[in-house]
Each structure stands twice: as C-alpha cells, then as structure tokens.
Amino acid sequence: MATKKILLLNSCSTCTRISNEIGVDESWEVQNIKENNIDEKTLDQLKAVYGSYEAVFSKRAMKYKSMGIKEKVSKDEDYKPLILEEYTFLKRPVIFVDDKVFVGNSKNTIAEVKASLGIDG
C-alpha cells in the first residue's frame, strides 16, 4: 500500500478541491500547515527535489507583497527561514506518494499526482 501524505491549508478551497480529486481519506496522513507548519527536514527534502527553496515558495501569498519580501530576498537561502516562519509562504498543497513529492496546484502537477496514484484523468 502506498505511503500518502498531504500538507495543505484547511481553509484553502483549492486544497480542498484537490484533496477530493485525488481521494484523500483516512489512509492519508493529512497535515494542516496552519496548525503544524512544514519542518526544516521536510523543507530541505523539497529543495533537494525541486532544486531551490524559491521553487516551493508561494509568491501569491498576501504577505509576500505586504511585507516587501521581493526587495529583501537576494539569494535562494533567504526563502528558507521565511517558509519556516510563515506557513502561507509554502506553495500548496505538498503531496507525498511513496518516494515522490509534488508541490503546487498546477494542472500538470495534479495530473502527475493522479498518475502516481493510478487515478484516471
């Protein structure tokens, strides 16, 4: 049986829609990042897969603009403490299926998740 985990924001309608699409149920480990943000080890794992912290950083987060972060970030390592301090800066959802990890809600990403789970369409 596949090991399945999803990091999401319970109040996010996109996360809820995707959870329903991919069949998240009691067999999944579900982590609400507002209550239990991503830990450093997991964030480092995402960086290893995606090549940078910036790749898993959400520039859509409201605080990104309000805090003027664009001007404060000069190198990739600057994103790490921001994500660890503020859950809204993590692109979501983050989905783990066995040894694969998927970040974000693009159609291609969700199609890859579905394929790894054996879900059609």
From TrEMBL:
InterPro entries according to UniProt: Arsenate_reductase-like, Thioredoxin-like_sf
Classification via Pfam families: ArsC (PF03960)
Sequence similarity: Belongs to the ArsC family.
Protein name: Arsenate reductase
Organism: Parvicella tangerina
